[in-house]
Amino acid sequence: MKKNIAEIINISNEIYDKGLVSGKSGNISARFKGENGDLIAITPTLKSLSQLNEKDIVLVDLDGNILTKGKPSSEVNMHLEIYKKRPDVYGIVHTHSPYATGFAHSSKRIKRHEGFGEIKTPFIAEIEYEKPGSNELAINASEGLCNEDVLILKKHGVICVGKNLKEAELLAVFVEETAKTQFVTYMLNSVEDII
Fold it and tell me: Is 111 helix (H, G, I), strand (E, B) or coil?
């Protein structure tokens, strides 16, 4: 269990340093096997992902019962619903990365690029806005991720899942870089060539 918590802290620092979250935004979690079933280790509410230590990480079971001190992220129900619907998922990263979140606040969609699995649809999946922390968001996000590993939450951010936490982090980085490339392309194509 200590290894899982250390990984959460390490990846929290990494996604903060990479600019995928800022301030006290974003949250991540990991699933691991406990004596009486699966346990979820999740980042706390209202604390920067850049300043976490071992005692900040909160353990919950799949029913949402808090097993340690502290208050889990306000998005804990979204994480739990995803884990319930996706037994293959062992890591979740929820970011507010600037380029991808910019797309989430616009009418533009992020095109899928090669580099992270087979391209089956032209755009990254998205769901309409629901209030952060709400049951509606938890249900809609978990349903949106039934056959996807990344989901754009309109007017909110991005959620990525993986077979482990590192895989989810790599996907979050890839989505942000994809959004950045697409944004730069839009900007370049909108400027008249003066040469």
Answer: strand
